[in-house]
Amino acid sequence: KAGVTQTPRYLIKTRGQQVTLSCSPISGHRSVSWYQQTPGQGLQFLFEYFSETQRNKGNFPGRFSGRQFSNSRSEMNVSTLELGDSALYLCASSLGLNTHQKNYNEQFFGPGTRLTVL
Amino acid sequence: KQEVTQIPAALSVPEGENLVLNCSFTDSAIYNLQWFRQDPGKGLTSLLLIQSSQREQTSGRLNASLDKSSGRSTLYIAASQPGDSATYLCAVRPGGNTPLVFGKGTRLSVIA
Description:
- The complex is a heterodimer.
- Chain A is mainly beta.
- Chain A has strands spanning 5-7, 10-13, 19-24, 31-38, 42-50, 53-57, 64-68, 74-78, 87-94, 108-109, 113-117.
- Chain B is an all-beta fold.
- Chain B has no helices and eleven strands.
- In chain B, the strands form two sheets. In chain B, strands 2, 4, 5, 9, 10 and 11 form a six-stranded mixed β-sheet that branches. In chain B, strands 1-3-8-7-6 form a five-stranded antiparallel β-sheet, with no helix packed on it.
- The radius of gyration of chain B is 13 Å and the shape is globular.
- The A-B interface holds A 4, 6, 33, 42-43, 45, 48, 50, 55-56, 58, 88, 90, 92, 96, 98, 102-103, 105-112, 114 and B 31-32, 34, 36, 41-46, 49, 51, 89, 91, 93, 96-105.
């Protein structure tokens, strides 16, 4: 079974630009979560999508947005990039629905997208 | 608000040693706890998941324990190898469909 894939793996942008990152979950997984990882703050939760609906949202400004498609693939968008947005963006997928499978919310992570803002 | 702490931030041990990594959390009302490994510049690899009703989980040389009442979990690594060198992250899930709350990790170096 293929793992979680993220594209692109590396991105370099300049301040003020916008960027779109993509995540394809493990087949059969309906929940996709996004995290930002920086050396200072560690892993911070951005948002989670389940069945095309945002189920949870972290404390990030409105410049950060996301969506999920009917095939469970997800994208996140960052508009008006700032230097502080430079980070590793990680996507994780899980089954997402408690159908009596004990570890239904066990998360599996992709390799991440390294975003550098100049 | 749930907070997760991992101490120490870094640890260096000689090959072959058994070691314990610590994770503490402030609110004992958790749904489950997950341990991950992260190699430099890479994504996270799930190691073990412990449900709130469980006391421990084992996978190969790894054993994770959970003591909800004291707000602690430990990851025991037996007979450490240089390939175990990585950052180990602990994450707590407060409720069934709530986001994971991560600690900042322990960076482990196993010296040959």
